[in-house]
Amino acid sequence: MDSQAKSFERVNQKRRTRSELLRATRELIEGGNQNPSVGEVADKAQISRATAYRYFSASEELIREAVLDGVAGVIEVPLARDGDGPEAAAERLDRLVTQIFDMVVANESVFRALLASSATGQSNARRGGRRLTWLRAALAPLTDSMPPKDLDRLVNALSLVTGIEALVVTQDICELDNGAAADLLRWTAKSLLAGALAESAR
To answer: In the prediction, which pLDDT does 59 show?
Structure first.
């Protein structure tokens, strides 16, 4: 095996090791361990603890990456078409809110673990950046008709009805089932959009 082939194999091995660690993290969380240690994850993945610590130095890093790895590529926002306006933006937003809700429900245990890690100050990582990107993409048809400041405020407001936090409020506080929770969040997003459009038209 030449040096180039060896280098390629090393890269593949590193990817496989990282993937196994993240998979084991998700399995432990889904099994009820909300804050697995790096050592516990290594044992679950049948990888040496020394090797695991070379990839992740702290459990919060593992949890964050396990969540992001698990949802990577799940949400897709199509490019806006020429001529799209407020009606198209409303349809795109409704689809996105539904997609995000379904994705969070499907990965609820790992998202709750990530939220707990953030709430207890164990993780200093910035959260929520992806949802803002998705929301801006969904609302792209409004770029030319809504002032940037108003659009920024709308995106920030809509971030409140997407993600694990919205699921916690609708389930734990409002005691709604998934169907009712999804309907409420879609209605809230639609209302926020309508209010923003009406205000910017004044």
So the answer is: 84
The pLDDT score that the predictor gives to residue 161 is 95
Residues 32 and 84 in one domain: no
Whether residue 110 sits in one domain with residue 168: yes
1, 98, 146, 192, 193 from 156: Cα distances, Å: 53, 18, 15, 11, 12
For the chain, the domain total comes to 2
The pTM assigned to this predicted structure is 0.72
